[in-house]
Structures are given as structure tokens and as C-alpha cells.
Amino acid sequence: MNKTIEAALNQQINAELHSAYTYLAMSAHFAEKDFDGFSTWMRMQAQEELAHAMKLYDYVLERGGHVALETVAAPAKKLGTPLKIFETALAHEKKITGMIHDLYELARKNKDYATENQLNWFVTEQVEEEDSAGRAVEQLKRAGDNMSALLMLDQQFGARSSE
Ligand code: FEO
Fold it and tell me: pLDDT tens digit string along 65-77?
């Protein structure tokens, strides 16, 4: 496969692993603050990110390419309120969407139709990712500082099965 595309796919694998790491840190933070439902939501999100990385990993191998695993950057240490954390998650997803679109553009420019096709799944997935983080932000904004509303949301988010 084209070396520029291979490098870009490896970069995306790294970004997805970093996403998993980011959400895992958020999950641990929520668990430490006894927001068990938010913690479950973030833990499931981390698992999804790992699945995204593996989807690209398998694809690179399937195309006879080389998987180059690099250092995964540490997640942020200061996380803030539940609203701030979900706002960070939404901003993160928007950044990932931009990366996927750049990758898509690169595949198109290089007439790599197989990669373009593979990336279609990710384009659709990013719409869902932004939607679920965006809805969480709106719900948390509505709850504000009302602890009983926050606890209700915590319980609701804990019921997440998969998205
Ligand atoms: Fe793999 Fe949340 O984007």
C-alpha cells in the first residue's frame, strides 16, 4: 500500500489508542468521585476507541502494510466538573472527525478506493460519536449544579450498553 497512506493510518491508530487512554482516565476520575454511571459510560467509550484502533490495525495488515505502534501520549491530568469533562470529550471527538476527514481526503487524492471505503465506516461513526458526546453536554448543562439532577444523569449514563 501507498507509504503516505500507511503512515497516516498508523497515525490514526495512535490517535484512537490515545482516545481510549483519554476516556479511561476520565472513567477512573469519575469512579474516584463516586459517579459510577459516568465512569461506566467513559469505560465503554474507551473500549469503543480500542475497537476503532483495532479496526484500522486489521485493515493495514489485510492490505499487506506495516503496523507501526508508537508511544501513546498521556491523557490530561486535570479534568474538572462532569460538564467540563464531557465538553472535553466533545472537543476531542471533533478533532478526531477532522483527522478522519483529512485521511479520507488523502485516500481520495491517491485514488486508494479501498481505504476510502474503509474510512466510510469511520465517517459515519464520527457523526454518532459527536452526537452522543454533544447530547451528554446538553443534558449536563441542563442539570447545572443541581446534585439530584446530576445523580439522576449519572444513573442514566450508567445504563449505556453500547453505541
Ligand atoms: Fe474513535 Fe471517538 O473516535
Answer: 999 999 999 999 8
